[in-house]
UniProtKB/TrEMBL annotation:
Keyword Protein biosynthesis on entry: no
Alphabetic keyword roster: Glutamine amidotransferase, Transferase
Glutamine amidotransferase type-2 domain ranges (all copies): 1-254
Any one GO molecular-function label of the UniProt entry: transferase activity
Record has Membrane as a keyword: no
Domain of life: Bacteria
Signal peptide positions on this chain: none
InterPro entries cross-referenced by the UniProt entry: EgtC-like, Gamma-glu_amide_hydrolase, GATase_2_dom, Ntn_hydrolases_N
Name recorded for this polypeptide: Class II glutamine amidotransferase
Length: 254
């Protein structure tokens, strides 16, 4: 894991100290790793201290090999700094992480959580909007159709925000995996779109919020308002998100 998390010039640990394209400069409100190994259920390691100060993180990433893993550094958008609020989130074989926010979340938290069915609400252990999005997606057929599930939930959340008179934006870049396929999406209801990039090299796909280095030109921006799917056989495929606001706005990368 350290080939991506600690060694590059603009590694994830470097980004925890200073981001170049994010809304905030520093991501010091915790971090997390999620990885798939020999078992169908992913491993998980999360903590609340900044990623740059955790010696265990450096040791683990130096030793663990995984064909599919998630890593995240957190900047809180208002919820508590706690282990339960650190990404990635895991339920069964699924991993999920998110950058962005549901604008005015405190105004719409109850109706957003109402999108989570009774079965999946038992997995609600934190207080973030990110975990709520994940559990709502699981409640809306994520196992059967990730593309439809993710855009359905985004549509419903946006409708809830508009009904509540929330003027702040819904901004989402997210990554999801079931251990076999990787999915990601990039969306914002305004023109400040969280960044998301991908690189395909020797059938290996890397998806990042910011390029890990400046010396290589093989990073490509995930198109705004699109869903990415990758199964490790061919190049990633992209599908446009069916969200009405997308047709009415001219988006530019953040």
């Amino acid at each position: 894991m350290d080939d991506l998390i600690t060694r590059p010039d603009h590694s994830l640990i470097a980004q925890s100290r200073r981001c170049e394209q994010a809304k905030v400069d520093m991501n010091g409100d915790g971090f997390g790793l999620g990885w798939y190994g020999e078992r169908p259920i992913p491993g998980l390691y999360r903590d609340t201290q900044p990623a740059w100060g955790d010696e265990n993180l450096r040791s683990l990433t130096h030793q663990i090999k995984s064909n599919l893993f998630f890593a995240h550094v957190r900047a809180s958008t208002g919820t508590a700094t706690s282990r339960a609020n650190c990404h990635p989130f895991a339920v069964g074989r699924y991993l999920f992480m998110h950058n962005g926010q549901i604008g005015g979340y405190e105004q719409v938290r109850r109706p957003v959580e109402a999108l989570i069915d009774d079965h999946h609400y038992q997995f609600r252990v934190g207080t973030t909007d990110s975990e709520a999005l994940f559990l709502a997606m699981l409640s809306h057929g994520l196992a059967e159709d990730p593309y439809r599930s993710m855009q359905t939930v985004l549509n419903k959340v946006r409708q809830i925000m508009l009904a509540a008179g929330v003027k702040s934006a819904l901004r989402v870049t997210a990554a999801l995996s079931d251990g076999e396929r990787l999915y990601a999406l990039r969306y914002s209801s305004d023109q400040v779109v969280p960044s998301l990039y991908y690189r395909l090299c020797n059938r290996s796909l890397t998806v990042v919020s910011e390029p890990l280095d400046t010396g290589e030109a093989q990073w490509h921006a995930v198109p705004t308002g699109h869903f990415l799917s990758f199964g490790g056989i061919a190049a990633p495929s992209f599908m446009p998100l069916d969200i009405p606001e997308l047709a009415d706005r001219a988006f530019v990368p953040a």
